[in-house]
Recover the amino acids of this structure.
């Protein structure tokens, strides 16, 4: 482990993540993006903090991580989980301060591990689908929060609302419209002929 070389090395040592360097290098080589690797590191930080807590923490690390970092989680729910962690003996502010960004992961891979972080492999449909889904769900959460704020300020008089945001892609040549997951899974439109 490259302890002390940068924030990632120091955090890995602090949270007993002995295999982190190997995991990051291997998964980057397999095509994981820098944001995915940062999230993986942060989830492992949280998991280790829970393991070392003074009391039992209800919930698994992945679900707790989603709650304290997710865009679509209410401030009340986020505060509730942070309080639960704090009451169990987790230094929540310290732990969140140890979370790493994708830029920090990039620097660690390049400068500490000697890994080339330039994009040499094509994007691929599977990774593209993940990126599109992330953008769609983030957009949906922003729309939902905005509309809810209008309701709370009496600018919009409705009952509870459920926001659904779908992505459709239309080929300008053949005129066919597809749900993004269908098009990316199939890898072609009607222009290519079919089966």
């Amino acid at each position: 482990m490259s302890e002390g070389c940068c924030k990632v090395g120091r955090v890995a040592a602090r949270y007993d993540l002995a295999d982190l360097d190997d995991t990051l290098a291997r998964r980057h080589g397999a095509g994981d993006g820098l944001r995915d690797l940062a999230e993986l590191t942060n989830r492992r930080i949280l998991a280790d903090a829970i393991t070392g807590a003074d009391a039992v923490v209800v919930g698994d690390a992945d679900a707790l991580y989603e709650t304290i970092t997710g865009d679509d989680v209410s401030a009340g729910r986020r505060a509730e989980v942070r309080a639960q962690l704090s009451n169990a003996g987790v230094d929540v502010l310290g732990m969140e301060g140890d979370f790493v960004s994708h830029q920090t992961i990039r620097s660690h891979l390049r400068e500490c591990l000697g890994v080339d972080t330039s994009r040499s492999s094509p994007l691929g449909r599977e990774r593209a689908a993940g990126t599109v889904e992330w953008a769609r769900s983030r957009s949906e959460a922003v729309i939902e929060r905005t509309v809810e704020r209008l309701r709370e300020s009496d600018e919009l008089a409705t009952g509870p609302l459920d926001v659904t945001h779908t992505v459709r892609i239309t080929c300008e040549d053949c005129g066919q419209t597809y749900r993004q997951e269908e098009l990316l899974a199939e890898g072609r439109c009607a222009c290519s002929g079919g089966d």
Notes: The CA atoms of residues 14 and 80 lie 26 Å apart.
